[in-house]
Recover the amino acids of this structure.
């Protein structure tokens, strides 16, 4: 109604470049593509069958291709995506769903209300634990080996940094879902010659 024009099916950097848009007279660009690419766990075994990324899990859960998750599901992470995944796994029929987080509940970034509702639905939590390895059997996830942690000095985020204790535990799992963070699919930037950091965020600062 305000005169905004929408052009769908156009991939910036592939179908049209920022330089081409500048030549057409556009002077400013606002990129709002979200962060829809999951961060890998970074441990041995994450390529096994039954290991999924949180965003992919939620996407499939809300489609006709619902994932087969088995009875035991481990979710790695402490944010709202991790809680969404855990609650979805319960609704998909998992008998045991456990959220693994490397700090304590007090440091979890997930909404407290979401955490409380997850507990009410039967989701369990394993705090002060970090994934060390995903054990497999016949090419499929079978167990998650965890490094127990303790809180040390505050890190750059202001939260106390989790420090390994050297003690290990193992929990059985048919499915492991990584919800340790998201990053930007940065091709829209790199195709236009813009440098990005490890999370796909442009390395330049915007003039305000």
């Amino acid at each position: 109604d305000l005169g905004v024009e929408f052009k769908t099916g156009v991939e910036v950097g592939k179908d049209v470049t920022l330089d081409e848009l500048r030549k057409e007279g556009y002077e400013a660009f606002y990129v709002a593509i979200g962060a829809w690419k999951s961060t890998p766990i970074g441990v041995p075994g994450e390529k096994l069958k039954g290991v999924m990324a949180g965003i992919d899990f939620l996407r499939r859960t809300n489609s006709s291709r619902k994932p087969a998750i088995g009875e035991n599901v481990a979710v790695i992470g402490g944010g709202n995506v991790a809680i969404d995944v855990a609650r979805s796994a319960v609704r998909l029929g998992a008998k045991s769903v456990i959220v693994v987080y490397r700090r304590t509940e007090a440091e979890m970034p997930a909404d407290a209300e979401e955490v409380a509702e997850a507990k009410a639905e039967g989701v369990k939590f394993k705090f002060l634990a970090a994934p060390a390895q995903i054990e497999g059997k016949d090419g499929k996830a079978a167990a998650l080996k965890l490094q127990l942690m303790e809180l040390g000095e505050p890190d750059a985020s202001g939260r106390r940094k989790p420090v390994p204790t050297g003690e290990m535990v193992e929990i059985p799992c048919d499915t492991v879902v990584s919800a340790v963070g998201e990053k930007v699919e940065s091709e829209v930037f790199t195709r236009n010659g813009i440098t990005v950091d490890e999370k796909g965020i442009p390395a330049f600062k915007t003039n305000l």
Remarks:
- The chain has a mean pLDDT of 89.
- The first strand starts at residue 37 and ends at 38.
